[in-house]
Amino acid sequence: MSASKLSNRPSTNLANLRKQASGCTACNLYKHATQTVFGEGPAHARVLMIGEQPGDQEDRQGHPFVGPAGMLLNKALAAAGMDRKQIYVTNIVKHFKFEPRGKRRIHKKPTALEISACRPWLDAEIAAVRPQVVVLLGATAAQSVLGRHFRVTEKRGCWVPSKFAPYVLATVHPSALLRAPDEKTRHEEFERFVEDLRQVADLIERREAA
């Protein structure tokens, strides 16, 4: 089933969406990926986080954010006072795009066509969860949702208007921290990432107290 057929058979049930997405052939990525990696988390999570695409471990295990970047995200969320189990996590693209390099599979950035082909799944997830806060992890996710002219470097950690949720914030993808050139830089960037996430935690806490 292609993502485009969602318009004819809309669903607000995540289980149904996940089942439909498992057979998605809207672009050619499904031909090489192990499986579709759909979003996971509470059906009505207050916070929904969006990354770019599954990585090697996500593709093998069938779950989002379970590789090294996912482990770092979990650590940052805990440091910010948030529980990963209370958050819905997903990606713009649901299949792993890679190029083989020896025995390794190296991440390759999805094209605009591949992002567009997968977009109906993301829109359906957001419509089903109806989060209060959407957190965009990295430039690909941010530009896909907020427009190609959006720059994370300029608006990182700022609340930006969007039709997708009352509150939307863009920050870096945790994989960017893993590419830091040295331990000192990695530590500084991790602390900055935690500060971005802490804004989300503080907002949710204020709304719960209101």
How would you describe this protein?
This protein is an alpha/beta fold and 210 residues long. 42% of the residues lie in helices and 14% in strands. It has a single domain (3-209), classed as Uracil-DNA Glycosylase, subunit E, CATH 3.40.470.10. The chain contains eight helices and seven strands. The strands form two sheets. It has a five-stranded mixed sheet, sandwiched between helices. Strands 3-4 form a two-stranded antiparallel ribbon. The relative contact order is 0.16.
Write the layout of secondary structure elements.
Blueprint: H1 14-21, E1 47-51, H2 56-61, H3 68-79, E2 87-91, E3 98-101, E4 104-107, H4 112-129, E5 133-137, H5 139-146, H6 152-155, E6 159-160, E7 167-171, H7 174-178, H8 183-209
Parallel strand pairs: 1-2, 1-5, 5-7
Antiparallel strand pairs: 3-4, 6-7
Briefly say what this structure is.
The protein is an alpha/beta fold and 210 residues long.
SS strand fraction: 5-15%
**Radius of gyration, in angstroms, nearest whole number:** 16 Å
Question: Could you tell me the number of beta strands?
Answer: 7
CATH fold description: Uracil-DNA Glycosylase, subunit E
Distance between the termini: 44 Å
- Looking at CATH, the homologous superfamily is Uracil-DNA glycosylase-like domain
Q: Uncertain regions: pLDDT < 50 for 5+ in a row?
A: none
How many domain modules?
1
Mean residue pLDDT = 94
Q: Which percent range fits the helix content?
A: 40-55%
Level-2 CATH architecture? 3-Layer(aba) Sandwich
The strand line-up of the biggest sheet is 2-1-5-7-6
Q: What would the principal axes of the Cα set say about the shape?
A: globular
| Largest sheet geometry | 5 strands, mixed
Q: How are helices and strands ordered from N to C?
A: HEHHEEEHEHHEEHH
Q: What count of helical segments does DSSP give? A: 8
Structural class: alpha/beta
Question: What is the C-level CATH assignment?
Answer: Alpha Beta
